[in-house]
Amino acid sequence: MRHLQLVRTVAAVAGVFALSSVVLAQTPRTATVERMYQLDCGEARSPDVSQWSPGSNQGKPVVYSDHCYLIRHGSDWMLWDAGVDDQLVALPNGKEVAHKVRGLVRRTLAAQLSEIKVRPDHITVIAFSHAHFDHVGNSRLFPTARWFVQRTEYDAMFGPDFSKYGFVPELYASMKSNPVVQLDGDRDVFGDGAVRILSTPGHTPGHQSLLVRLPKSGAVILSGDAAHLRENFEARRVPSFNADPVATKRSIEKLEDIMRAEQAQIWINHDRSQTADIPDAPQPIE
Fold first, then answer.
1. What CA–CA distances, in Å, run from 49 to 92, 120, 166, 204, 240?
2. I need a labelling partner for 142 at 20 to 30 A (CA). Which of 28, 71, 77, 130 fits?
3. How confident is the model at residue 29 (pLDDT cuts 50, 70, 90)?
4. Which residues have CB under 8 Å from 195's CB, separation 6+?
5. Are 126 and 136 in contact (CB under 8 A)?
6. Pick from 132, 126, 103: which is nearest to 113 by CA?
């Protein structure tokens, strides 16, 4: 009798674990966001692309695209990156900001949000791939959004060595008043697997990327500045000013592993040849 009771108990426990495994396996893979928008968040120009591609194309000028992404998930709007400061729209030739890079704005982020009837105070969640000027330029527009940031990035942004990483504190100083969620690695933003922040340090101490599951396009990785060009991603070229070259290469390998596991596309934010093929707002990406 005892033996029979033990068998039944083991079977019951096994059933619970089996059911839990099914739920855990299905939930994150089936949940998707409703839609996403690619926003034109300016340009970054440099006279020498080789500082991003050591040993290649020395002295060759480059124009990088710069995009932000607006994500609709249930009743939430999430903004990924905040681009070049909208105020530069008044300067036809832009302004040199950091690392001998000139930022330019043709269409303001605020105007593009308005075009799809989204106000800054509608943004409930905000995250930046990192704190360089072309990713946090309009952060002040979203004072009520919950900010997801790696603890190491936060410490570098507000610590004494911010200039070492090419950060410009006046562009993001207001974020200190936002509700902040400091991270120590990956995070499932909404708890259903539809949007995952991926810790990808190297370019800056707390650089991060984003995995978004779209209803029709499938899984997409917004890689931030893990690499600036597709060829750099594939060749493991590390910018000369990156905070940690070894961590950069590890992060690229991590993204490649996730691409394989999730059958995900990767979108290289600054690679114009790729981003040109992705529709800008107001057309949604599903």
1. 22, 34, 17, 19, 11
2. 28
3. low
4. 33, 71, 73, 78, 188, 189, 210, 211, 212, 213
5. no
6. 126
The amino acid occupying position 65 is: S
CB–CB of 281/37 below 8 Å?
A: yes
Q: How far is CA 41 from the centre of its chain?
A: 14
pLDDT value, residue 99: 76
| Of 61, 41, 42, 58, nearest in space to 50 by CA | 58
Cross-sheet strand order for the sheet of 208-214: 187-188, 195-199, 208-214, 218-222, 265-267
Residue for token digits 């691409």? Answer: 259
CB 72 within 8 A of CB 34: yes
SS3 state at 25: helix
pLDDT above 60: residue 258: yes
Q: Which two tokens stand for residue 50?
A: 């080789």
State yes or no: pLDDT of 22 exceeds 80: no
| Residue 3 confidence (pLDDT) | 37
Which DSSP category does 280 fall into?
A: B
Q: Which two tokens stand for residue 70?
A: 């607006």
All structural domains of the chain: 33-275 (3.60.15.10)
Q: Which residue has the higher pLDDT, 273 or 286?
A: 286
Residue with structure tokens 């674990």? 17
Give me the residue label for tokens 């992404």.
Answer: 69
